[in-house]
Design goal:
There is one protein chain. With 151 residues, the protein is an alpha/beta fold. 40% of the residues lie in helices and 19% in strands. It contains 5 helices and 6 strands; from the N terminus they run αβαββαβαββα. The chain has a 6-stranded mixed beta sheet with strand order 2-3-1-4-5-6, with helices on both faces. Helix 3 runs parallel beside helix 4. The protein starts with a helix and ends with a helix.
Length: 151
């Protein structure tokens, strides 16, 4: 199923969706902790995204990339779930990224699976997050990867 998500993302990034001169933007919903326990995490993520877009541009396959940011307020899976639903239903995002904390990531992963929208975990390190959620992928590390060698 993960392979299907990768193919789906590749299709999304290359498909223009219409014959009009101005293709629809790629909307990415970013759910991260800007307030509540995350000291500088949100500011650091914003700076990283801004730097990447300044160096590589804000278009993919001729489509403008739009980042829609939302604050999950820290350890708040109910808030993260609600935000993910709002981003999918109201903002019509194409995919979700983010989360610092595992409970929030699990909540967002459940929403992404139900909506069949990709969710890319940026920072939540518990290994079980993606096991039950076929539309979720991680591009960071898991806690066992760093603790097993220490044991």
């Amino acid at each position: 199923m993960r392979l299907a998500v990768c193919f789906g993302l590749a299709f999304l990034l290359t498909w223009t969706g219409s014959a009009s001169a101005q293709p629809a933007p790629i909307k990415i919903g970013l759910i991260y902790s800007y307030t509540g326990g995350s000291l500088n995490g949100g500011r650091i993520v914003d700076a990283a995204i801004e730097t990447y877009m300044r160096q590589h541009g804000d278009t993919i396959a001729g489509r403008k990339v739009v980042i829609i940011k939302r604050d999950d307020t820290g350890l708040a899976p109910d808030v993260a779930r609600r935000i993910a639903q709002e981003l999918i239903v109201q903002e019509h995002v194409d995919l979700l990224i983010g989360t610092v904390l595992t409970p929030n990531a699990s909540a967002v992963a459940g929403v992404s699976t139900a909506a069949k929208k990709p969710f890319f975990v940026m920072n939540s390190a518990t290994s079980g997050i993606i096991a039950k959620h076929p539309y979720t992928a991680r591009f960071g590390f898991t806690t066992p990867q760093i603790t097993a060698p220490l044991a």
